[in-house]
Design brief:
The complex is a heterotrimer of chains A (453), B (343) and C (98). By secondary structure, chain A is mainly alpha-helical. Chain A has 20 helices and 2 strands. Chain A has one domain (2-452). In chain A, 73% of the residues lie in helices and 1% in strands. Chain B is mostly helical and 343 residues long. Chain B has helices at residues 3-22, 26-45, 50-81, 91-105, 113-120, 123-130, 132-143, 150-168, 174-195, 197-220, 226-229, 237-251, 259-271, 275-301, 324-333, 338-342. Classes of the chains: A mainly alpha (453), B mainly alpha (343), C mainly alpha (98). Chain C: It holds the Pfam family Oxidored_q2.
């Protein structure tokens, strides 16, 4: 555990001290190396759950895939941001990379800690670097507003969580997640308010429909690295938190989950429909995140083995897919300097190879058969169907609309006639490498989906 | 001002606080408070400016009246009980004295003078007023803690935390913002008097560290309004980064130092089953955080190449104070040392 | 409560009420503070002095000395604020409202 954590933490001084010539290559190679080291976590010969623990941290089959994905995203963030940072002086590049590395360190600690208080502190600690990423390296004036939304939605949601955790500490004398789940001392006297306090932070982070307004703003205003990490990992913190919190109060969940499942399923349809009438490319991808996360919320709340496994698979799949989509949107943005769909038509004729990536990404987003997106959605859909048959109306409709808007993105960006007065530079190898690195885990994971749950 | 007088003032400022701290007799405590007021007045009024005069006048009126009220209450106590010891103050007297001390500290319903005095004095004097001058009244609150008026302290603390954050939203002058931040922190502080005195010490220390770091940074960059703050990066870019971290620490974002007192206070309140004040206090930290984040936006997050909305100012490049580095790093990174501090 | 107690406490209360409510002139505020101090002085001087225990006899003097210092500081502030604000009206002290 420490060998990964220290190595990741040492990325910060590396980014600050290395020679400018080797700055990007070294940091991305280093980060990738950490990810490869992390793959060893998947080997769990004794199949214990958690399969490695110490007094502060643990790894189990929920932690490992999410942590590895967040580590995988870091080098991709560095690769994706190079064009964005090319005009900056070298000190600012260093600060940017140091911020990303700090975020990565805190994310690993958030996912691996066993203690709820520590989890809370680390959960909040991810806010500061993300806020800096959004508001410092975003490009428009609205980013300040977006940063405020991001910070205050999350904090207002999570302050009740802090009080709930302190309450647990007072009544039990410890806040270790595994022990709390085993003892289950809370359940009889655990009130509705406690359950709400525990869950609301993650519902906001997820985000649940109705509490999601910060997300499109943050995504639209964030630079590419911020969008990638936000879509890929930070939203998954919410799913991770729900999965961790539910064993603390299984009975109360059985009575409390109805409004949330209803909201999430209804929100899936609403946000998918919103996607169909957006003009902003990044905004569509952001709303599609909200829609997919609705499935994850419903699946984690009904908390059957199948649904949790499906939620895990969908979180991994969506993390990589939406990050890929943001990268693609960013390649367009770097060339055309606009996110408006109407102004970026006809890219098929200009960047033909990029069209292939767009096609694959759209197919992934609508969950075409050989992808893990499909596997996750299928598992969630069937477990939801088993929970209540009528949910199939909502989930199937959503699948339909998801396919529609994925194709809509593809067709509006790639087909049509390009605007005549644009000079667009051809694609770089760096960008193709970026897309490939997103797609390799997505396509290969279908050969062994058991890695993810 | 001649160095001799200046050193005399600073010495008596320090000594008077120590007199109050070490006193056992109410009259001596009053003498300490009075000397304290008298020695800070020339420091405030030193910059011969109408604002400084006004600030000194307001400070004098409030402090003299509050000190007289403390002396009256202790005289009444002596009538009732027959002795002047601070430790043995009866319950009614404690209530009056607590109210007078809260007036001296600038707790919310009696906070009107505080932002104006800070606004009228220089940055260094404001630093003294908002840190060192709090010590003497707070020590008296420590000493009469054998039967504290719990309800008053809790109520005033919650009101102060709420009002400090709420009114601070409306300010554009950095010293006034710091004043309201100080009011909010004082609200958290006096709540700890109900919980445990160790916690009060910790909270006070951390408040002093973060406030000192912030005032020193503001002083170094000569930042008086929010628009000045937008140009602080031209003087020292690393300093503005540290200012941003310090601001977030003041706002109590984990894992910075400012989260320590909030965490411990909320934990202690949970221990006492005071769920309602806990929730209100936790939520009261959000408006304060809003204006800290707004200041943080001005320090680093909107610097070029992004478009800035401030004009360039003609300024000398000030020397960086040596104490700035330890102050800002303490203001950022003390949380892991917390177990050592509270035990 | 004896007459002495009543008189001194009453004087103090009247003075502090005057300080709080009567807000026209700075000099009247200072006079109210002086009234409070004098009430405290007479309380200390009258009700604690016994021929037997003389160790409290210095108390009123110490108090009066510091109250005089405070009064001096107040009067100098009065002069300073009259010079800068043109009169001693309390509502003139509004530079720092902003």
């Amino acid at each position: 555990m420490l060998k990964i954590l220290l190595a990741t933490a040492m990325l910060i001084p590396t980014a600050l001290l290395i020679k400018p010539k080797h700055l990007f290559t070294t940091t991305s190679a280093y980060a990738m190396l950490i990810t490869f080291l992390m793959l060893k976590w998947f080997e769990q010969p004794l199949n214990h759950k958690p399969h490695s623990t110490n007094t502060l941290m643990m790894l189990d089959n929920i932690t490992t895939p999410l942590t590895t994905m967040s580590a995988w995203i870091l080098p991709l963030m560095i690769i994706a941001s190079q064009h964005h940072l090319v005009t900056e002086p070298v000190n600012r590049k260093r600060m940017f990379l140091a911020t990303c590395a700090t975020l990565q360190t805190t994310l690993i600690m958030t996912f691996t800690t066993t203690d709820l208080t520590m989890f809370y502190i680390m959960f909040e600690m991810t806010l500061v670097p993300t806020l800096i990423l959004i508001t410092r390296w975003g490009s428009q004036a609205e980013r300040l507003n977006a940063g405020m939304y991001f910070l205050f939605y999350t904090l207002t949601g999570s302050l009740p969580l802090l009080i709930a955790i302190l309450h647990l500490y007072v009544s039990n004398g410890h806040t270790t997640m595994l022990l709390l789940a085993m003892q289950n001392t809370l359940t009889p006297n655990m009130t509705m308010i406690m359950w709400l306090a525990c869950m609301m932070a993650f519902m906001v982070k997820m985000p649940l429909y109705g509490l999601h307004l910060w997300l499109p703003k943050a995504h639209v205003e964030a630079p590419i690295a911020g969008s990638m990490i936000l879509a890929a990992v930070l939203l998954k913190l919410g799913g991770y938190g729900i999965i961790r919190m539910i064993p603390l109060a299984p009975q109360m969940t059985q009575t409390m989950y109805f409004p949330f499942i209803v909201l999430s399923l209804w929100g899936m349809i609403m946000t998918s429909l919103i996607c169909l009438r957006q003009t902003d490319l990044k905004s569509i991808i952001a709303y599609s995140s909200v829609s997919h996360m609705g499935l994850v919320i419903a699946a984690t709340l009904i908390n059957t083995p199948w649904s949790t496994a499906g939620a895990m698979i969908l979180m991994i799949a969506h993390g990589l897919t939406s990050s890929l989509l943001f990268c693609l949107a960013n390649t367009n943005y770097e060339r055309t300097h606009t996110r408006t769909l109407l102004l970026t038509q006809g890219l098929l004729f200009i960047l033909p190879l990029m069209t292939m990536w767009w096609l694959v990404a759209s197919l992934m987003n609508m969950a075409l058969p050989p992808t893990i997106n499909l596997l996750g959605e299928l598992m969630i859909l069937s477990s939801l169907f088993n929970w209540n048959t009528t949910t199939i109306i909502l989930t199937a409709t959503t699948t339909l609309i998801t396919a529609t808007y994925s194709l809509y993105i593809f067709i509006t960006t790639q087909r049509g006639t390009p605007l005549p007065n644009k000079v667009l530079t051809p694609t770089h190898t760096r960008e193709h490498l970026l897309m490939t690195l997103h797609l390799v885990p997505l396509t290969l994971l279908i050969t062994n989906p058991a890695l993810m749950f | 001002m001649s160095p001799l007088i200046w050193s005399l003032l600073i010495t008596s400022l320090a000594t008077s606080t120590i007199i109050t701290m070490s006193s056992h007799h109410w009259l001596l405590a009053w003498v300490g408070l009075e000397l304290n007021t008298l020695s800070i007045l020339p420091v405030i009024i030193k910059s011969h400016h109408p604002r400084a005069t006004e600030a000194a006048t307001k400070y004098f009126l409030i402090q003299a009246a509050a000190a007289a009220l403390i002396l009256l209450a202790s005289t009444l106590n002596a009538w009732q009980t027959g002795h002047w010891s601070i430790m043995h103050t009866s319950a009614h007297t404690t209530t009056i004295i607590t109210l007078a001390i809260l007036l001296k500290l600038g707790i919310a319903p009696m906070h009107g003078w505080y932002p104006e005095v800070l606004q009228g004095s220089t940055m260094n004097t404001a630093l003294i007023i908002s840190t060192w001058q709090k010590l003497a009244p707070l020590t008296l609150l420590y000493l009469i803690n054998n039967n504290p008026p719990t309800n008053i302290l809790l109520l005033m603390g919650v009101i102060s935390a709420l009002a400090g954050g709420w009114i601070g939203l409306n300010q554009t002058q950095t010293r006034k913002i710091m004043a309201f931040s100080s009011i909010a922190h004082m609200g958290w502080l006096i709540i700890t008097l109900n919980l445990s005195l160790h916690l009060t010490t910790t909270t006070m220390m951390i408040y002093m560290i973060t406030t000192t770091a912030m005032f020193m940074s503001l002083n170094t960059t000569t930042t008086k309004t929010m628009t000045d703050m937008g140009m602080a990066w031209t003087q020292s870019p690393p300093l503005t980064t540290m200012m941003m971290i310090t601001l977030m620490s003041l706002g109590g974002l984990p894992p910075l130092t400012g989260f320590t007192p909030k965490w411990l206070i909320l934990n202690n309140l949970c221990h006492m089953n005071l769920l309602f004040p806990t929730i209100i206090l936790a939520m009261a930290s959000l408006p304060s955080l809003f204006f800290y984040i707004r200041l943080a936006y001005f320090t680093t997050l909107t610097t070029p190449p992004n478009t800035t909305n401030t004009h360039h100012k003609w300024r000398f490049k000030p020397p960086l104070i040596a104490g700035l580095t330890p102050a800002t790093s303490l203001a950022a990174l003390l949380l892991p040392l917390m177990p050592m501090m509270i035990s | 409560m004896t007459v002495v107690h009543f008189t001194t406490a009453g004087t103090f209360m009247l003075s502090i009420t005057g300080l709080a409510l009567h807000r026209t002139h700075l000099v009247s505020a200072l006079l109210c503070i002086e009234g409070m101090m004098l009430a405290l002085f007479s309380a200390l001087a009258v009700s604690y002095q016994t021929p037997i225990h003389t160790n409290t006899s210095l108390q009123p003097i110490i108090m009066l000395a510091l109250a005089a210092c405070g009064a001096g500081a107040g009067l100098s502030l009065l002069v300073a604020s009259t010079r800068t604000h043109a009169s001693d009206h309390l509502h003139n002290l509004s530079l720092l409202k902003c």
